[in-house]
């Protein structure tokens, strides 16, 4: 059963969403943790265990993209715990419920901080991956994305088939700006939203965290589905303190019955 919180229940969240015309969700590591993907911080977190990634990743890439690719290909042969956990992970009931809500016309866009591709694998179509997608590469010049397994690696760095620009993995590195097309889409969604769902994220990483607050300032309803309190909790109209794998399927069931 879904736990009841002083501030709200799934029933109240469903009631709030029923009349909304453009619902946007922001999702984070908490959602994928329910698929067995370790979070970054906290006990058992991948950074807690192995140390944070170098903060100069972007600088290293820029100084010598060819060398960065050589090392990346070496690293793949010694796949990290994190990469293996992602490869084993399957979408959980929370991801599946979000795809279902999209098909029902109750959820219009997902902005995710996760790079694991689980929203798409669950069937969501309208997805913006603010930190990139680990299966994709991105052209540094024209922004075109391709699947990583579809590019040629005979020459490093690999080059864009479209414009000849240098390809980089799509995952956003420390120090690397969020791609402009991604930021534009997030702003567009925050401006369209009349309801914003925040799911499984501590909402402390910028710029992702600012979109729900931006929508709220414009008068959108803010709903938080998260087992733990976050800095957004005090702004939220409804807070459901339960794992997304419990609250989202219940939400989809409630909204599915007219
Ligand atoms: Zn290009």
Describe the structure.
With 258 residues, the chain is of the alpha/beta class. The chain folds into two domains: 7-37 and 90-134 and 177-258, TPP-binding domain (Rossmann fold), CATH 3.40.50.1220; 58-88 and 136-170, SIR2/SIRT2 'Small Domain'. The protein contains eleven helices and nine strands. The protein has helices at 10-18, 29-33, 46-50, 57-63, 65-77, 81-88, 93-103, 118-122, 180-192, 210-217, 244-256, and strands spanning 23-27, 109-112, 127-129, 136-139, 145-147, 167-169, 195-199, 221-225, 238-240. The chain has a six-stranded parallel sheet, with helices on both faces. Strands 5-4-6 form a three-stranded antiparallel sheet, with no helix packed on it. Helix 4 (57-63) packs across helix 5 and helix 7 (93-103) runs parallel beside helix 11 (244-256). The protein is elongated and about 55 Å long. 42% of the residues are buried. The site of zinc ion has 8 residues, from loops.
Topology record:
Blueprint: H1 10-18, E1 23-27, H2 29-33, H3 46-50, H4 57-63, H5 65-77, H6 81-88, H7 93-103, E2 109-112, H8 118-122, E3 127-129, E4 136-139, E5 145-147, E6 167-169, H9 180-192, E7 195-199, H10 210-217, E8 221-225, E9 238-240, H11 244-256
Parallel strand pairs: 1-2, 1-7, 2-3, 7-8, 8-9
Antiparallel strand pairs: 4-5, 4-6
Bound molecules: zinc ion.
Zinc ion is lined by residues 139, 141-142, 144, 160, 162-163, 165.
């Amino acid at each position: 059963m879904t736990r009841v919180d002083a501030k709200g229940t799934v029933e109240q969240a469903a009631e709030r969403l029923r009349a909304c015309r453009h619902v946007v969700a922001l999702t984070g590591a908490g959602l994928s943790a329910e698929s067995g993907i370790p979070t970054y911080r906290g006990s058992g977190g991948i950074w807690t265990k192995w140390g944070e990634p170098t903060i100069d990743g972007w600088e290293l890439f820029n100084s010598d993209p060819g060398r960065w690719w050589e090392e990346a290909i070496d690293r793949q042969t010694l796949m990290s715990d994190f990469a293996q956990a992602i490869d084993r992970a399957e979408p959980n009931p929370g991801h599946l419920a979000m795809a279902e809500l999209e098909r029902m016309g109750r959820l219009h866009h997902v902005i995710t901080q996760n790079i694991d591709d689980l929203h798409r694998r669950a069937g969501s179509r309208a997805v913006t991956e603010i930190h990139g997608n680990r299966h994709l590469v991105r052209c540094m010049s024209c922004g075109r994305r391709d699947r990583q397994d579809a590019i040629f690696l005979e020459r490093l760095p690999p080059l864009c088939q479209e414009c000849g620009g240098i390809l980089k993995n799509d995952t956003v590195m420390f120090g690397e700006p969020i791609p402009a097309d991604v930021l534009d889409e997030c702003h567009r969604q925050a401006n369209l939203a009349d309801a914003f769902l925040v799911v499984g994220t501590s909402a402390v990483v910028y710029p992702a965290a600012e979109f729900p607050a931006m929508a709220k300032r414009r008068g959108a309803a803010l709903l938080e589905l998260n087992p733990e309190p976050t800095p957004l909790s005090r702004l939220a109209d409804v807070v459901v303190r339960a794992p997304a794998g419990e609250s989202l399927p219940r939400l989809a069931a409630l909204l599915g019955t007219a």
